[in-house]
Amino acid sequence: MRIMGIDYGDARTGVAISDLLCTLVGSARVVPSRNTDKAIADIVKIAEENQVGEIVVGLPKNMDGTEGSRAQLCREFADRLGQATGLPVVMWDERRTTVEAHNILSQHDYHGKKRKDTVDAVAASLILEGYLNFKNR
Q1: Domains in the chain, start-ordered, CATH in brackets?
Q2: Which parts of 8-106 are beta strand (E)?
Q3: C-beta separation of 129 from 25 below 8 A
Q4: Is the dihedral of CA 136, 42, 89, 29 positive or negative?
Q5: pLDDT digits over 106-137, tens only?
Q6: Side-chain-side CA neighbours of residue 14 (13 Å)
Q7: Exposure of 136 in the CB half-sphere (CA atoms within 13 A)
Q8: How far apart (Å, rounded) are the C-alpha atoms in residues 20 and 71?
Q9: At residue 13, what are phi and psi to the nearest 5 degrees?
Q10: pLDDT digits (tens, 9 = 90+) for 1-30
């Protein structure tokens, strides 16, 4: 079984998949998400192709730990994803993952469109990595 990490966004959603041992992030990509139904269908297909058994969705909390409107959108997306896949879906605090993803990409000279097309996949990888570290403790 693999675990899938999701960084849900309005335009693009990052998707990361663990290795079979659920210890490392094995791959990451981005799916367009302006059409939520299509994004969910794309993620369902990726989950099936990769034998995913659990999904972790990033929950964007405010720095003080409260949840805003964006967190509610992510919870609704996660609920729909759970219904569509039939898999357990866990919410994971994603504070600062996008900032960290931008920092990583800057360090590796990713700028402009190249960064825009990659940052959500990196953020999904960071969400998944945090969750895998937690589970493997």
Answers
A1: 2-135 (3.30.420.140)
A2: 12-18, 25-32, 52-59, 89-93
A3: yes
A4: positive
A5: 777 766 666 566 778 888 999 999 999 999 88
A6: 27
A7: 12
A8: 29
A9: -120, 125
A10: 999 999 999 999 999 999 999 989 988 999
